[in-house]
Amino acid sequence: MSGQADTEAQEQNYTMGYNEEFQVLLRRRSAANNASQLLPRLSSGMRLLDVGCGPGTISMGLADVVAPGEFIGVDIEESQIEMARAAASAGGHKNAEFEVADAVNLPFESNSFDVVHAHATVMHVPDTSAAVAEMMRVLRPGGIISCRDMILSSCFTEPRHGDFEIAWQVFGKLLSANGGHPEMGKEIKGVLHAAGFSDIAVSASFECFAAKEDVDFFHGFAQGWFFSDQTMAAAEKIGVASAEDMDRWRGLLDQWQADPAAFSTIAWGAALGVKPG
Ligand SMILES: C[S@@+](CC[C@H](N)C(=O)[O-])C[C@H]1O[C@@H](n2cnc3c(N)ncnc32)[C@H](O)[C@@H]1O
């Protein structure tokens, strides 16, 4: 992904950025793995909006389930929309369209969607209430919202090597410094309740990295993305970690990868709600 897109992401305070080192994580995602709380509620013919769709790896499965209903994916970043469009075209997902839009200002009529989905998006929007209010506005009465976000304090990397756990906390501080919400996965029920949604159903799950290939993936992802020069510079800039800290954690991550007991998780919380009729 372009350096320009990453610079713009920093200006827009989006912590993850759009570089290839982060995209590898999004490419592992699918509707089956990342939207299982929503899939049983979907049916053919529904009109579905995916907010913060990124490159569309979850979107494609959602689009297939509602086909021939209309699927629209939106993201604030043009490069992500281009990737999602290319994936939809290559995969023959004819009912899927993608456009650039901000979650807090959705360019759609009120009461016009059956379902609004947002995966790992609300946690990055500084004004969470504004985003959820917009999602509620575009939903029809009786329509369903589905949000899934990280629970940073429940993520872990075991066995513990040195003070590596602190690197997770640094990630949380970076998210917060950018207006993000590292614990959104457990706050989302309250956010939907405050917005006026009813029949809220919540669930929590772990994305596990324990098989050798998944440990190797997590190691490569963390080395390539979290321990990139860009993230290190951001951590130093807000005073949450020094270059020495990052170098030490890099070495500890190598030790962890080589440990036969290596097991890491990303923790997620999800909530479904219904717009009152
Ligand atoms: C972590 S990615 C998740 C992408 C995808 N939903 C997934 O889980 O694979 C978060 C996405 O939200 C987008 N995003 C962040 N703030 C946004 C906003 N205010 N409006 C729309 N999209 C936003 C980012 O550009 C990014 O593509």
Give an account of the 3D structure:
The chain is of the alpha/beta class and 277 residues long. It has a single domain, classed as Vaccinia Virus protein VP39 (Rossmann fold). Strand 1, helix 4 and strand 2 form a beta-alpha-beta unit. Helix 6 packs across helix 8 and helix 9 runs antiparallel to helix 11. The N terminus is likely disordered.
* Overall pLDDT: 93
CATH topology: Rossmann fold
The CATH superfamily is known as: Vaccinia Virus protein VP39
Q: How do the SSEs run, as a string of H and E?
A: HHHEHEHEEHEEHHEHHHE
Main sheet? 8 strands, mixed
Question: Which word captures the global form?
Answer: globular
Strand tally: 8
Class from helix and strand fractions: alpha/beta
Estimate percent helicity.
40-55%
Number of helices: 11
